[in-house]
Design brief:
25 strands, 19 helices, alpha/beta, 12-stranded mixed beta sheet, globular
Length: 557
């Protein structure tokens, strides 16, 4: 029997006109701006004008990722479809995929199997142009910064202390470190420079955390792009760039409405990576999903130590969101990898390896329950090779923490395979809870970093490199020390060492540098060898992607 690929499933499933999806979501025509038949933007004025009570907010997160896969986005979509199947008014809110990974390692990122958002080709490629607008705003600011220096440098900017990089939405290691402004005086001022991938740009973070155009402009104005010769910060506001940047972003800021394969309304908007940024879709899209649905299902990138930590400590704090329940996604296959089994040997029952890997899941679950005080359910994506004994072991271990395990088959069955999970989520949303953050903003920058490492990663402490210490002292003197912290860390381990799988103990995390994202409103702590511009693998996914003479795309996931 031949199995259909994700793109073949998506292309073989008829879509409803986006006007019908808007009616299902309760979006009046006056707020809808169509981008073709199957996608639209929704004016953010809806949030201001609607008097409807906010729905429950459910976060979907996961164990520490492995090459075996976990299926977090797929589970998010399948859960939303399952919610509608049991009669609940549900809207989903997801991040937009970045072109870099689409053509790099992982291919598309719009769910999988029969739990996808569509049109998946559009979503994975240019979509409605949001990322292009973000990149243009980022690079306009870079151009105005260098032009200011070229035109006389009224602000006394030290070219050696420029912190703002250009960006491109592609994995391109060649651009990590460049020298530009070469070729004589009329071509600019020569200096060392570099590129970030667009999803790592502070503009992306600002875009995703802004509540309105006014808030967007205020955040843009605070972005620190450089320092003067006498160590004073220079902002986008100082350069007079804010109005033009906001003009580029005004349409992009409106959330994108699409649909799941089963016709559930879905907002797909914004896309910061969770290992180098805060890893959540836009605040506006999340709030719109809550305003339109009795239940809003959203996800945060990578494992719960990254995406969920940042969703809860940064996004919820800034947007004053109070989540009602959390789903932690796991697979038996991935847990066996955490227990030391090679990817090629995951098809055989191995209770010993599973038992050794389950502590990874239990640590994430404990964090959600004990650190953040939120109700939690474990969703196990069941594979055909999973045995009853393996599933029973996961259920037993989670039950000891007072957490239920629900089997999910949404990849194969869509919303039908998510109905049991939906029932448990509805139950959890009615539980009383005492949501709290993992650290207070009142401590020092080092205090906050240490709290995340010790409370969430369960490490023994933090090593602050001299360069990081110097920068922390400077940022503290400038008054930036009361911001939350965004950890830039490998996604493959609780520690900063990607080889430490499972639930490592007795480790410390080394912070090699820190930087301020004053517009976003957080301090970024860089650990390990984390990079803000990925590279392509030996065999990029791009080599498998093609389009025929009728415009039909193939090979995209």
């Amino acid at each position: 029997m031949a199995f259909l690929s994700d793109i073949e499933i998506a292309q073989s499933t008829p879509m409803k006109p986006i006007t019908e999806i808007a009616k299902v979501a309760g979006v009046d025509e006056e707020y809808l701006e169509q981008y073709g038949k199957y996608k639209a933007k929704v004016d953010y004025a809806l949030l201001k004008n609607s008097t409807r009570k906010n729905g429950k907010l459910v976060l979907v997160t996961a164990i520490t990722p492995t090459p075996a896969g976990e299926g977090k986005t797929t589970t998010t979509i399948g859960l939303a479809d399952g919610m509608r199947r049991i009669g609940k008014n549900c809207v989903v809110a997801l991040r937009e995929p970045s072109l870099g990974p689409v053509f790099g390692v992982k291919g598309g990122a719009a769910g999988g199997g029969y739990a996808q958002v569509v049109p998946m080709e559009d979503i994975n490629l240019h979509f409605t142009g949001d990322f292009h607008a973000i990149g243009a705003a980022n690079n306009l600011l870079a151009a105005m910064l260098d032009n200011h220096i070229y035109q006389g440098n009224r602000l006394n900017i030290d070219p050696r202390r420029i912190t703002w990089k250009r960006c491109v939405d592609m994995n391109d290691r060649q651009l990590r470190f460049v020298t530009d402004g070469l070729g004589g005086r009329v071509n600019g001022v020569p200096r060392e420079d570099g590129y970030d991938i667009t999803v790592a740009s502070e503009i992306m973070a600002v875009f995703c955390l802004a509540n309105s155009i006014t808030d967007l402009k205020e955040r843009l104005s605070r972005i620190v792009v450089a320092y003067t010769y006498d160590e004073k910060p220079v902002t986008a506001g100082d350069l007079g760039a804010v109005g033009a940047m906001a003009a580029l972003l005004k349409d992009a800021l409106k959330p994108n409405l699409v649909q799941t394969l089963e016709g559930t309304p879905a907002f797909v908007h914004g896309g910061p990576f969770a290992n180098i940024a805060h890893g959540c879709n836009s605040v506006i899209a999340t709030k719109m999903a809550m305003k339109l649905g009795d239940y809003a299902i959203t996800e945060a990138g990578f494992g719960a130590d990254l995406g969920a930590e940042k969703f809860l400590d940064i996004k919820c704090r800034m947007a004053e969101l109070n989540p009602d329940a959390v789903v932690v996604v796991a697979t038996v296959r991935a847990l066996k990898m955490h227990g030391g089994v090679a990817k090629t040997d995951l098809g055989s029952e191995n209770l010993q390896a599973l038992d050794a890997g389950i502590p990874n899941l239990l640590r994430h679950v404990s964090n959600i329950k004990d650190v953040y005080g939120l109700p939690c359910v474990v969703a196990v994506n069941r594979f055909p090779t999973d045995t009853d004994a393996e599933i029973a072991l996961v259920i037993e271990k989670c039950k000891a923490l007072g957490v239920n395990v629900v089997l999910s088959t949404v990849w194969a069955e869509g919303g039908k395979g998510g109905m049991a999970l939906a029932e448990e989520v509805v139950r959890l949303c009615e539980e009383k809870h005492d949501f709290r953050f993992s650290y207070s903003l009142e401590g020092s920058i080092e205090d906050k970093i240490r709290a995340i490492v010790e409370n969430v990663y369960r490490g023994d402490g933090v090593v602050i490199a001299p360069a990081a210490k110097k920068e922390i002292d400077k940022l503290t003197s400038l008054g930036f020390d009361k911001m939350p912290v965004c950890m830039a860390k490998t996604q493959y381990s609780f520690s900063d060492d990607m080889t430490k799988l499972g639930a490592p103990e007795g480790f410390t995390v080394t912070v090699r540098n820190v930087k301020v994202s004053a517009g976003a409103g957080f301090i970024v702590a860089l650990t390990g060898d984390i990079m803000t511009m990925p590279g392509l693998p030996k065999v990029p996914a791009a080599e498998r992607i093609d389009v025929d003479e009728n415009g039909k795309i193939s090979g995209l996931f």
